[in-house]
Amino acid sequence: MTGMKKCRKVVTARLVDARSKLKNVKAKKREVDNYIEEKDMREEIGKLLIANRNLEEKALNLSTENSKLHPGDLVVGIGGDKGGDTTKLCLEIQNVDNPNNPQGILLLGWYYGHDNHQGLEKYMSEVFKQINALEYVEFDMPSYGKQRRKVFKKAIGDCLFITAMLNLPGPSSLNPCFICDYKFTNHGSEKALVGTSPFDQSFKLRTIDSILAKGRPLLLMNPEDIGIPPIHTIHGVAQKYVLDPLFALANRLDAPGKDLPRSLSEQKSYFKDLILREETSLARCHDVKNGISRCELLISTYENVQKPGAKIKKNASKCSSVACVPHLVKNKKLFDPKAYFHCSSCNGFFHYHCINVVTDDEKLSLVNGLGSRKCTSCELGHPATLDDHIRILAGAKTSLAQVSDSEELEYCALNVERKEIEAQMKESKGFYRRKLEKVFRNLGCDHRIWYQEMTGNQIRTLLREKNVKRIVDVFPYSLEIMWISEIMGELAFLMTHSNNADKSDFLIDEIEKSIKRLTIVLKELHKETGNDG
């Protein structure tokens, strides 16, 4: 058996050592990959952009492939995203019939790390320098001869990636917009609300010069030439101002007597606060019960000490009280012989239970200086006897018994409410919640409400006209559900046209009208909702 144990220890130690070495090897591999990738960016991608070889080849392929490349300037989008452990930087030719055609996408490079300014600057700064210097491309086109196209550059990607390329504060800052300098806060008394925020107005535009004066932008272009990422934006608006309100409405309808807050975020906060209140109430119940037990044990001990011929053990931790008996009580776990109270009147030091402090709540108040107290003798005005202590403890026990009843009633009420809200919000046991989630499941859009959000494809599915009607039909008619329906309709129209295709003047006017209608409904329905940008 001893040999087996030794063998097991040796094997375990070697496994741990092997895992540690493997972890170090992986870390070294990442360092090497990043070095190689950075070197490749400077040597290969750098040479690629200077000579325009791959970009010219892409343009030529698109121009000869069913005339998919439009005439005029070559419009290219510069951007990227983080997937898994890697961040990718890409170039996309946009003025084509199908902007998402793989033939029009060029991978500029990738690295292990986050898609922030620090990572992009470390691994992609040389690439950005050459992107900024790229002005035109030339390529031979069959039957047309040599083509020279001016390159018009745009920033693409989500808001986080765009702000990283421009070295701007980002979505969580006071001025998160990368186009203008509009400032607002989401916290405190100055919290910006949808109903009153002028987010539909134009403010002082940022310029590349103003950004250069404060930071180190990698992509040199004026922010006014950068469009917001429509799919990401619509996804965020749909999640916060459509899906969350739908589930919040279902929760309120399923719990009519609970007076739940209006928004889902406030409902979650209410539920967390309810859990805290329940835990606090339970702790008070235990404290009161322990206080009653301490009273009973101390009274019993004092009575035993008063009996004729009682044998009293020597007290190694005696305090200044003549009634110091912590060494004689039976359940010593309920008493702390190391904690002392200093009486400022007689300058004595007393165990808390020796001055009849029997609850942790009262003890903490004295420790934190929130209570005013003297020792028992100083409060009585004469040396306290055992009978005095018994009388005071008996009165404390009676008072605690009354408090215990009210505390238990409060705890039971909180416990019942917490279970009901939990069943509604986390277990989906309410009628409208079950009905709504069933519709989502049937549409392939199972909403994982508590921890995750829907994907972009799920949002696209939900915003189809027939699916909007199925969702709205879950609820009884109300002005609120009609407004939510209008928001979904406008988002559906905007998502339909959220692509890189050229837009006619008429379509641009229609998109502007849709955004104005959306703004009006959002401000009306979500007057008191925070503006998250």
UniProtKB/TrEMBL annotation:
<keyword id="KW-0175">Coiled coil</keyword>
<feature type="coiled-coil region">
    <location>
        <begin position="18"/>
        <end position="58"/>
    </location>
</feature>
<dbReference type="Pfam" id="PF06918">
    <property type="entry name" value="DUF1280"/>
</dbReference>
<dbReference type="InterPro" id="IPR009689">
    <property type="entry name" value="DUF1280"/>
</dbReference>
<protein>
    <recommendedName>
        <fullName>Zinc finger PHD-type domain-containing protein</fullName>
    </recommendedName>
</protein>
